[in-house]
Amino acid sequence: EGVQPQEYTLIKMKLLKLPDIPNVAQLFAHKDVFLPAATLRPETMYGQTNCWVLPSGDYTAYQLSNGEIYIASPHSGRNMAYQDFFEEFGKTSELCTLKGSDLIGLPVKAPLAQYEEIFVLPLLTVSMVKGTGIVTSVPSDAPDDYRGLMDLKEKDALRAKFDLKDEWVLPFEPIPIIETPGFGNLAAVEACKRHKIRSQNDKDVLGRAKEEVYKAGFYNGVLQVGEMAGEPVMKAKTKIREHLINTGMGRSYSE
Ligand code: A2H
């Protein structure tokens, strides 16, 4: 990790169903429960197709001072304690702990997403010490997300391993949301093809593809959807971040 603080936008993905675990349902009753995904690309949220967690990851449900519940990594909880998320400065407020696997298959409502509901799915490269350990998936513009989704779509054994229902995975396709010169309107799909990436575990080449797509999208991309359609990504990014935060669909988070 670098020495510079990184400012993310937390995308509040609202749980539409509670985890099926004794006692947890009571703890969460009548409250709004969110999976907060840390992103550097808030302008891509129109293209969300699913949410990623690390199946073996340890997550904590936190009670926020505004009444909401967040399920996130303990690493992010400790950071949030110094950013005004909880009642008492420097302290977290914990309700219970969960495994990533407890969250898999839950439907969420994701801000700005074109799909009405999307599902929590497993990705083995999610880091528990970066962001919140919750990652929103935009396969049109993030090579890691595209490859993660394609692994689940193409590999029946992988879906079986995690007990995934086909309907959580197969209906969801990358959505064209940004025109990136040299890459077309599905930049991550194009980059994965060019680099012949066949698995979410091809980390080095995925890293290179991510870098290429991120730079090209940021400097030359033009948004194709939403209220900022026709605007360059560079300009739309800040506006969409502000919109998400002002409407309560997002929140600022640094680490
Ligand atoms: B980005 P940086 Cl469309 N583990 O959001 C693995 N990846 C994580 C993570 C974690 N714990 N927390 C956040 N991320 C991802 C969107 C996106 C992202 C697009 C394109 C590129 C991109 C949709 N996924 O990131 O290491 C999140 O994915 C490329 C930089 O802190 C987050 O932004 O620089 C990004 O990594 C943060 O990466």
Textual characterization of the structure:
- The chain is of the alpha+beta class and 255 residues long.
- It has a single domain (7-254), classed as Isoleucyl-tRNA Synthetase, domain 2 (Alpha-Beta Complex), CATH 3.90.740.
- The protein contains nine helices and twelve strands.
- The chain starts with 6 loop residues before the first strand and ends with a strand.
- The chain binds ligand A2H.
- Residues 6, 38-41, 44, 126-127, 130-131, 133, 135-138, 141-142, 145, 210, 214 line the site of ligand A2H.
Descriptive tags:
about 260 residues; alpha+beta; Isoleucyl-tRNA Synthetase, domain 2; ten-stranded mixed β-sheet; two-stranded antiparallel sheet; 9 helices; about 30% helix; about 20% strand; binds ligand A2H; leucine--tRNA ligase
Quick overview of this protein structure:
By secondary structure, the chain is an alpha+beta fold. The protein is 31% helix and 22% strand. This is leucine--tRNA ligase.
Quickly name the level 1 CATH class. Answer: Alpha Beta
Beta percentage is 15-25%
Overall pLDDT = 96
CATH topology: Isoleucyl-tRNA Synthetase, domain 2
Distinct compounds present: ligand A2H
Helix content class? 25-40%
- Tell me the overall shape: globular
Determine the number of helices (DSSP H or I, runs of at least 4 residues).
9
- What do we call the CATH homologous superfamily? Valyl/Leucyl/Isoleucyl-tRNA synthetase, editing domain
Low-confidence stretches: none
Strand segment tally: 12
Rg calc: 18 Å
Secondary-structure element string: EHEEEEHEHEEEHHHEHHEHE
Q: How many structural units, i.e. domains?
A: 1
Please name the CATH architecture.
Alpha-Beta Complex
Quaternary structure classification:
single chain
- The helix-and-strand class reads alpha+beta
Distance between the termini: 10 Å
The major pleated sheet works out as: 10 strands, mixed
